[in-house]
Amino acid sequence: MNTPARHSDPGRALAQAARADALVLQQCRHCHTVQYPPREICVNCLSDELHWKPVDNRGTVLAGSDLHHSLEPDYRQQLPWKLAAVQLDCGVRVLVHNRAAGAAGDRVRVLAQPHRQGNTLLVTAAIDEQEASP
Amino acid sequence: MSQDNTSSSHHCAPCDPAPGSYDGVALIAPVTVPYTRFSDQSAAWFIGRALAGLVRQSGIQKQHIDGLCVSSFTLAPDSVVSLTEHFGLCTRWLEQIPLGGASGVIGLRRAARAIQCGDADIVACIGGDTCRAQSFKATVANFSTFSSDAVYPYGAAGPNGPFSLITQKYMDTYGAERRDFGRICVAQRHNANHTPGALLGDKKLDMDDYLQARPIAGPLHLYDCVMPCAGADGFLVTSVERARALQLPYATVLAADERHNAFSADPVQLRGGWQLFRDSLYQRAGIGPADIDLLQTYDDYPVICMLQLEGLGFCAQGAAAAFVRDTALTFDGGGLPHNTNGGQLSGGQAGCGYLGVVETLRQLNRSAGDHQVPQAAIGMVSGYGMVNYDRGLCAAAAILARGER
User: Fold this and answer.
1) Going by CATH, does the domain composed of B25-134+228-245 fall within 3.40.47.10?
2) Which one of B9, B145, B222, B226 would you mutate to disrupt binding with A, by most A Cβ within 10 Å of its Cβ?
3) How do residues B299-342 score in pLDDT, each as one tens digit?
């Protein structure tokens, strides 16, 4: 069985807005709050005027772990799978596929990359030393 | 450690007003429909058998139960009102609480208010689930919108994913070691070894077994992860007057409270809503943590027990590892009896946090049998639930007391 892509409308919109050269996340037109996971209402001012904007995609790894167990056969073949939480400088926390193997405290970039079955995954990428500081 | 950042634009509102007292409310007739790893029966079957148990244990006839409160992850497409028709109940009050492992404590709160306000005379509160081969995967894959979009595609690890990150961050921040989590798990297995019906109660677990278990996710190994199963727990909520008239053992509610989506700006969840209400909770109960004879925390993972020990004031923030090194957690260890029937880690996970409520009632009624805490008079039960994205959003707790005969 394949990994299902049961996405909400905002979740699909994130995949459609994805660009290779930038991290595009949801932003409120009204108060400019960046938010993640994508939603239909602004978490700060409750406006529904949301759009998709490139954001500062630098961040700091909060914690990482290697998954040794998965509910999906697709992923079972890829174990151990590197999961991490990253605090982005633009203010949101993201769970990511930690492809850059960043350790807690490491500076990384986060990008959106196409994955199987229509999923778009946020992934870590290495960051140049001179661009690492916020 | 900048976990005190509350400068976010969407932090919790000031929480000064405290809930009024729960005077006059009695909790009676704790029942359990035995847990089983898998079942071909439906969630309705488990909830219905719990209801039958409540009728049998209390001697109250079915037609006198005029309120029903249920929680279940596996009841859909049915709901609490479907169950009235299924079980032939005519009620004047219904509640369904979808708050995961906080549902037991919160069901207790809702039902208590219904009794106090006269909206119902006798409320049956029941948490029950079935478990089939693919039902856990279905629950996890469709757990919430945020989870489907932003968690499940990341390795499809279920709750093990977010909790592996929480556990790792807790270890990095406070210096806790695997062995510290192991102390919680090993003590609970000892308790389960004295609890008929605990799913893993016939198996011993020592620290070496714990440390040598196979890895699941980051610092989490097999015995850190709760086992989903089928089963149900329930109790009745009514007035003290009625409980006494029926000559049934009962417990009263000294205080209870809840908070949701607290500390949302914390980068990783190292605390929950408990700390926003615990001082007021103890004040209303007229006691402190040292007066608690037994504590049931929601134990989907041992790190969450630690967050509750800290959040509920048994030790300082970040000090739970030291606390469990120094404090016996077994029912018979003379320390702080904790998850006295083995909890979910040794008993199985079904029924949305009702396990801890029902175990507290048994202990206060002195009907816990082989794992009875001697002289148990005041018990605390804590709930935690709903990992909507990267943390559990619901926190709740109640302090219960043995009712005077």
Assistant:
1) yes
2) B145
3) 999 999 999 999 999 999 999 999 999 999 999 999 999 999 99
